[in-house]
C-alpha cells in the first residue's frame, strides 16, 4: 500500500495583507514615538531639579549646625562664607557645603547649560562649574524666600549678568531661553526655596518673587 505523502505549502502574503501589517506598524511607531521623545526632553530639567534638592538639603544641614543660619550669614572662621559676599562669586558660597555633599561638585552643574562645565575632580569649585544663583539673604525662618535657582533669569529683557543682583518685589523678571527652552519648548527655570522644596516655574515667577515677603533679595549669579 502506498503511503500518503504530505506537502507543506508556503502561502505568500497578499498585497492587502502587507498593507494592513504596514499600517499597524506605522500606528504603533506613531504611538510610541512621543513617549520615547519625552524622556530625553525631561531629563535635563529633572536633573537640575534633583541638584537643587540636594543643595537645599545641604543648606538645611549647614543651618542645623550653625544656629539656623546659611553660609552667607556665617563668618569664614566658623566655616561660612559671609566675607565672600563682596566677591560676588556663588562658587565660594557653595564650596562651604562640601562637608554635606561628600564633595560631589557635579551637583552645581546642569547638563542643559552648555556655557558651564562640571568639575569632575575634587578640586577647587569655580563659577565655571556653577549653573545656579544663590541668595545671600535667605534664611530658614523665611520659608517662602528664594534660596537658589537656575541662572537663566532676565530683567526687562536683559539677561542678569554674573555678580550680585538685587531681586526686588516689583522686578519684572522672566526666564531666558538659554537653558531649558530647547528641551521643554518653553521658557522656564527651577527655583529652590528656603524650606527645601523646589519648583519649576514659568509665568508664575513674578508671583513667587512677591510671595517672598522681602523688599530685596540679593542673589549671586555665576
**Shape summary:** elongated
Largest sheet data = 6 strands, antiparallel
Number of domains: 1
Q: How much helix, percentage-wise, in residues?
A: 25-40%
Radius of gyration in whole Å, from Cα?
Answer: 26 Å
Distance between the termini: 95 Å
Strand content: 15-25%
SSE sequence, one letter per element: HHHEEEEEEHEEHE
Mean pLDDT: 85
User: What is the overall number of helices?
Assistant: 5
Low-confidence stretches: 31-41
What does this structure look like?
The chain is 32% helix and 17% strand. The chain is of the alpha+beta class. The strands form two sheets. A six-stranded antiparallel β-sheet has the order 5-9-1-2-7-8. A three-stranded antiparallel β-sheet has the order 4-3-6, with no helix packed on it. The longest helix is centred in the first third of the chain and has 51 residues, at 15-65. The protein is elongated, with a radius of gyration of 26 Å.
